[in-house]
């Protein structure tokens, strides 16, 4: 996809774990300029850290983004319950809104599957970290068979899930299920989420079980490996750890390790969705104002 002719001006709604990692990524990007990190409390650790790093900040949330705009792209790393109002307020500004909260609004986008759809949308839905980790694999398998059932189990370190993530677990499950159905044409989909306090903290792990009577194991394995290699082009900590074929069934496990940056290695859930968000923001043509 085409890139910005000059750095696009970006803002972040939300100063939690996801928002702060995004801020650092945008700060290092040659194609984006970080114009604002907006939260809702001046005393929040995220806004304090952002200000200490020299980023422009505000505790006025959405109002500050609207007032200090226009922005080319706004990343919503806040709360699923607030996202619709954010879109309603920002759609008239010409900004592209990239949603990192688990809502079912906007265009579902997974970079290695349908990035071209992002170019035609100003409201991009990144589903969830579990969706970003599983859908590349499931979409590749769905191209070789018609699954009758898909089950996805996401396990993350408890320290990598902030307050908004915990509040949005129901939305996380519902949105991830809806996206998997849409990308694989599978009617029966079940998503489960575990947060573990285990020490040492494990990497983000996603286990997918696909039931399909006609699933060819050799072709399926090749499809999984090819899909994973594509994801590693922007999320290098993504790895397939096991592929277990059985008659009419295939189980695939992937792990995502956060490499570099300020977030811990166990926070692969943050790493993969933020890497996808940055990639799409850097490589899109923004609509004319």
Could you characterize the architecture of this molecule?
By secondary structure, this protein is α/β, with parallel strands linked by helices. It has two domains: 8-126 and 272-282, NAD(P)-binding Rossmann-like Domain (Rossmann fold, 3-Layer(aba) Sandwich), CATH 3.40.50.720; 129-267, Dihydrodipicolinate Reductase, domain 2, CATH 3.30.360. Helix content is 39%, strand content 24%. The protein has ten helices and twelve strands. The strands form two sheets. The protein has a seven-stranded parallel sheet with strand order 3-2-1-4-5-7-6, with helices on both faces. A five-stranded mixed sheet has the order 9-8-10-12-11. The chain is globular, with a radius of gyration of 18 Å. The two termini are 20 Å apart. Mean pLDDT is 93; it is low at 285-289.
What structural keywords apply?
289 residues, alpha/beta, Rossmann fold, Dihydrodipicolinate Reductase, domain 2, 2 domains, 7-stranded parallel beta sheet, 5-stranded mixed beta sheet, 10 helices, 12 strands, 39% helix, 24% strand, globular, disordered C terminus
Annotate the secondary structure layout:
Layout: E1 8-13, H1 17-28, E2 32-38, H2 45-52, E3 57-58, H3 61-68, E4 73-76, H4 80-90, E5 96-99, E6 107-108, H5 111-118, E7 123-125, H6 129-142, E8 149-157, H7 163-167, H8 169-184, E9 189-196, E10 204-211, H9 217-232, E11 238-246, E12 249-256, H10 268-282
Parallel strand pairs: 1-2, 1-4, 2-3, 4-5, 5-7, 6-7, 8-9
Antiparallel strand pairs: 8-10, 10-12, 11-12
């Amino acid at each position: 996809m085409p890139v910005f002719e000059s750095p696009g001006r970006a803002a972040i709604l939300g100063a939690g774990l996801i928002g702060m990692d995004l801020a650092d990524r945008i700060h290092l990007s040659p194609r984006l300029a970080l114009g604002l990190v907006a939260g809702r409390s001046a005393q929040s650790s995220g806004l304090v850290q952002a200000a200490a790093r020299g980023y422009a900040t505000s505790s006025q949330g959405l109002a500050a983004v609207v007032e200090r705009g226009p922005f080319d792209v706004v990343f919503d790393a806040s709360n699923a319950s607030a996202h619709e109002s954010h879109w309603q307020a920002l759609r008239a500004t010409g900004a592209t809104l990239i949603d990192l909260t688990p809502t079912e609004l906007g265009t579902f986008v997974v970079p290695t599957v349908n990035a071209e759809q992002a170019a035609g949308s100003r409201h991009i839905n990144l589903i969830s970290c579990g969706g970003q980790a599983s859908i590349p694999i499931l979409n590749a398998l769905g191209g070789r068979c018609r699954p009758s059932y898909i089950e996805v189990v996401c396990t993350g370190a408890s320290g990598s899930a902030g307050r908004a993530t915990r509040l949005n677990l129901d939305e996380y499950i519902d949105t991830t299920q809806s996206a998997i159905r849409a990308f694989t044409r599978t009617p029966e989909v079940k998503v489960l989420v575990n947060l573990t306090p285990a020490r040492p903290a494990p990497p983000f792990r996603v286990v997918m079980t696909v039931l399909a009577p006609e699933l060819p194991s050799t072709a399926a394995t090749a499809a999984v490996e090819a899909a994973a290699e594509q994801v590693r082009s922007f999320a290098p900590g993504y790895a397939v750890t096991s592929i277990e074929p059985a008659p009419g069934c295939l189980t695939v496990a992937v792990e995502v390790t956060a490499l570099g940056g300020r977030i811990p290695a166990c926070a692969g859930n943050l790493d993969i969705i933020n890497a996808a968000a940055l990639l799409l923001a850097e490589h899109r043509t923004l609509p004319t104002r």
